[in-house]
Amino acid sequence: MPQSAQPNTQQAALWNDASGKAWVEMQPILDGVLAPLASLVVDAGYPGEGGTVLDIGCGAGATTLAMARRVGNGGRCVGVDISRPLVALATERARAEEVANASFEFGDAQKYAFESGRFDAVVSRFGVMFFDDPVAAFTNIRQAARRGGKLAFVAWRGPRENDFMTTAARAAAPFLPQAPVPDPEAPGQFAFADGARVRRILEASNWSSVKVEQVDVQCQIAERHLMTYATRLGPVGAALREVDQATAEKITAALPAAFAPFVADGKAHFIAACWLVTALA
Description:
Helix content is about 45%, strand content about 25%. It is an alpha/beta fold. Strand 7 and strand 8 form a beta hairpin.
């Protein structure tokens, strides 16, 4: 599957540098936090024993590997991601875990030259909210699926419904310059917060039988990993790489109290407020 031109230059730069490296370093922690969402996607997108599956924005490969095990040795699961560091890690994991029917490709799914009609299903765990042109991306992805093939992915609902995910940014805000109001439809974590917009994108991309279902999933992270999680990822992780030491110390000092309401029995517990989106090619 050769790669063609890559339009999402800002995301490519981000995920091939600081963000991609942080996700590589935190892979075991993140896989644990997001495991319930990976299971949800695998169940919704499973095409049956021996099926072929494409995983968009596969990251370090957890969902791809889980689906590859599910479809069995007669099936095949291919993960595609815009981050070279994450693709390299996913490839190594498949080798180390001896999942021979999983493979990984570096590329931008918006313009990737997929083989037409190759896959029985397309899945994604939080990997589809980052396209500059989501209609173009989902049109291209649809061409990779056979007629009647499944689409299943999870995407975050709005930031107000995901208070755990925005806690670090709120705690850091008093110590940082005021940020401009973000475009709610700009590529990023909450780009698919509007479920009606998600439906419009898929219908404009000629997917059929589109369902956008609200799901609230219980997740948790060990308290000992919480500050690493809060300071390495997202806008706070980015800010801490840029600010002076005094500001960084103020931000990190504010975080434990901000997250305290979520912590009990050595773990932080939170609800992942998401959309489970399914459709047919």
